[in-house]
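Whiteboard transcription, Tuesday session. T.W. wrote the C-alpha cells on the left side:
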C-alpha cells in the first residue's frame, strides 16, 4: 500500500495548511510582507534558516503561486503575488494570537539579536531623526556589535560602522531590548532590566521616540485584557 503523506481532506483549512504549514514558510511570507526582496535580506530576518532551506521554501512558494521571482538591478528578487498578499491577514492574525495568548518571558526565550535589529530598522520614524546622519552602536550581551545608520532619508542595518559619528551606544541584555520592543514593558522598566543608552544627552532622551515599536506591541496579553474588561464592566 502506498504511503499517504497528505491530510486527505477536502477542507480548505487542511489543504492550505498542507501547502503552507511547513516550517519557515510563513516566516518567509512575513519577511516579504515587511518589504524584503533579495535572498540575503529575507535570510537576515530569519537567521536560523539555512541557505538551502530558504531556497527550497522560496521555490515551493513560487510553485504555489504565492511568490514570483524576477531579476532586479543587483540580482534575483522575490515578490508576493496577489495570492501571497492575501496571506497578510493570516500572518497578522497568527501574530496577534501569539502576542495575546503565548507567555512573554524574554529572559527565558531562545532569542536572536539580528531579527530584532532588522525590525527596528524597518520601523524608524524618519521624521523624528536629527538633521545630521548618525550611527547608533548596539552592544548586546553575547552578540557582536551591530549598527543602525539613521538619516532623514533612510535607516540601514549594518554589521560595521559605515563611517559616521556614533553619538549613542545602546548597551543591553537582549531580553531587556526585546521586552521593550515587543511591548512587554515600557522604556523605564527596560532600563531597570539593564538597558542603557549612553552618549549625547538630548539624543539619548529622544532615542525611544525615533521608533514605532513592534507592529503588535499594542496587543495586550490575554490576562491583562480580561482584567481591563472586568474593570470597566458595570
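and on the right, the sequence the group agreed on:
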Amino acid at each position: 500500500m502506498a504511503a499517504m503523506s497528505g491530510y486527505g481532506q477536502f477542507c480548505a483549512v487542511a489543504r492550505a495548511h498542507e501547502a503552507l504549514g511547513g516550517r519557515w514558510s510563513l516566516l518567509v511570507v512575513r519577511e516579504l510582507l515587511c518589504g524584503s526582496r533579495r535572498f540575503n535580506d529575507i535570510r537576515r530576518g530569519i537567521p536560523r534558516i539555512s541557505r538551502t532551506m530558504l531556497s527550497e521554501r522560496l521555490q515551493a512558494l513560487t510553485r504555489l503561486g504565492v511568490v514570483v521571482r524576477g531579476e532586479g538591478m543587483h540580482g534575483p528578487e522575490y515578490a508576493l503575488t496577489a495570492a501571497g498578499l492575501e496571506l497578510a491577514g493570516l500572518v497578522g492574525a497568527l501574530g496577534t494570537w501569539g502576542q495575546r495568548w503565548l507567555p512573554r518571558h524574554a529572559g527565558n526565550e531562545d532569542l536572536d539579536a539580528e531579527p530584532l535589529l532588522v525590525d527596528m530598522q524597518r520601523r524608524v520614524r524618519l521624521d523624528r531623526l536629527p538633521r545630521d546622519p548618525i550611527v547608533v552602536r548596539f552592544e548586546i550581551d553575547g552578540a557582536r556589535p551591530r549598527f543602525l545608520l539613521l538619516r532623514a532619508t533612510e535607516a540601514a542595518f549594518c554589521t560595521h560602522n559605515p563611517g559616521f559619528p556614533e553619538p549613542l551606544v545602546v548597551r543591553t541584555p537582549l531580553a531587556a531590548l526585546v521586552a521593550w520592543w515587543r511591548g512587554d514593558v515600557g522604556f523605564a522598566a527596560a532600563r531597570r532590566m539593564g538597558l542603557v543608552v549612553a552618549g549625547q544627552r538630548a539624543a539619548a532622551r529622544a532615542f525611544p521616540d525615533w521608533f514605532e515599536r513592534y507592529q503588535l506591541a499594542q496587543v495586550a496579553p490575554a490576562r491583562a485584557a480580561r482584567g481591563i474588561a472586568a474593570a470597566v464592566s458595570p
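Someone added at the bottom: The beta strands are 67-72, 75-80, 134-140, 146-151, 154-158, 168-172, 196-199.
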